[in-house]
Amino acid sequence: MTMDTGKVPDTTPGGNTIDYAGYLRQQLAQQQFNVASYRLGDEQVWLKKEGAPLGTGRYRAMAVLAALLRLEVLRPVPNTGGRAAIATEVRRLRDLQARGLRVPTVLAAQDDGFLMRHLGRPAQHTPSLGNEIDHAVSAGPAAVLALWQQGLAAIAQVHASGTCLSQAFARNLVRCPDGVVGYIDFEDDPAAVLPLPVCHARDALCYAHSTAIYLRLVGALDDARAMWTAWVSAGSPELQAVMATSIRRMAWMRHLPQSRRLGRDMQRVRAAYDLLRP
C-alpha cells in the first residue's frame, strides 16, 4: 500500500504542470543516494528515499544513561530508519506546515520515499542557522547574538503552535531568502514517546548544545544567559519545571574542563552548561 500523496497542486510556482507523483516513482528507481536534489521545471526539489534500518543498541545505551542521571530529557527517541522514518517525516512535515510553520512542502510521497520542495531559491544554497552563527563569529558578539535570538524565537514559535521539533540543533534550522527561519529533518517524533513539556525542554537543550560554544568564542555568554532566562520564563510552567530539574541534575558539568585539548564535544557540553546555569 502506498502513502497518500497529499493535496499539493501539480504545478510549479511558475504555473507549469508537473506530475510530482510520476516523477517520484521514476527517480526512486534510479537514485543511488538516500537524498538528492533535482531541478524540476522552474523549481528545485529534494528526493529522499528509504535508508537501511537502524540498530537499537545506541538507544538502549542512551536509556541507561538517562536513568542513571535521572534526566528525562535524555530518554531516547527511536528512529528505526527505513520506511518507518519516511512515514514519520512525511507526516511531521505535513503537520508542521498545517500549523503555519516554514518547512519543505511535501509534493508527493510513497512508502519508500518522498519528494519535497527546496526551502529557498532554485540553485541557491539555503544556509543552516548553525553555519550562519559560525560565520558571524568574525563579526563579533552583536552579530552572533542577533542570529542566536532568531533561533530561539523560531523554536518558541514551534512550541506556541502546540508541537515540537525532532532534533533542534542549529544545523536543522535554516534561514530562507526572506529571512524567515525554517525547519528540517523530522525522521523521529519525540512527542510520540515523551510528554510535550519534556519535548520542549529537549528542543531547548539541543539548541543550547549546538550554539553555546559560539557565544563563548565572542564573549557573549553573559548577555545570552539573560536572554535565555527570559525565554524560559516566557514558556509554560511545565517547561520551566522540567528545565529547572534538568539543569539541577546537570550541575556536575560545571567541573568539566574548558581546555581545547579535550576536544570540541567536551567544549560544547561545558559551554552549554555555562549558558544554562542559574
List keywords for this structure.
single chain; 278 residues; alpha+beta; Phosphorylase Kinase, domain 1; four-stranded antiparallel sheet; two-stranded antiparallel ribbon; 9 helices; 10% strand; globular; disordered N terminus
What does this structure look like?
- With 278 residues, the chain is of the alpha+beta class.
- The protein folds into two domains: 20-117, Phosphorylase Kinase, domain 1, CATH 3.30.200.20; 129-276.
- The chain is built from nine helices and six strands; from the N terminus they run αββααββααββαααα.
- The protein has helices at residues 20-28, 57-69, 82-98, 129-136, 141-160, 196-217, 221-233, 237-249, 264-276; strands at residues 35-40, 43-49, 106-110, 113-117, 173-175, 181-183.
- The strands form two sheets. Strands 1-2-4-3 form a four-stranded antiparallel beta sheet, with helices on both faces. The protein has a two-stranded antiparallel ribbon with strand order 5-6.
- The protein starts with 19 loop residues before the first helix and ends with a helix.
Topology:
Elements: H1 20-28, E1 35-40, E2 43-49, H2 57-69, H3 82-98, E3 106-110, E4 113-117, H4 129-136, H5 141-160, E5 173-175, E6 181-183, H6 196-217, H7 221-233, H8 237-249, H9 264-276
- Determine the N-to-C terminus distance: 52 Å
**From N to C, what is the helix and strand string?**
HEEHHEEHHEEHHHH
Rg result: 20 Å
Which of globular, elongated, flat, extended, rod-shaped describes the shape? Answer: globular
Number of helices: 9
Instruction: Provide the helix percentage.
Output: 40-55%
Strand order of the largest sheet: 1-2-4-3
- Uncertain runs are 1-7
Q: Domains counted in the coordinates: how many?
A: 2
Number of strands: 6
The average pLDDT value, as a whole number, equals: 90
**Portion in strands:** 5-15%
Largest sheet: 4 strands, antiparallel
Which structural class matches the secondary elements? Answer: alpha+beta
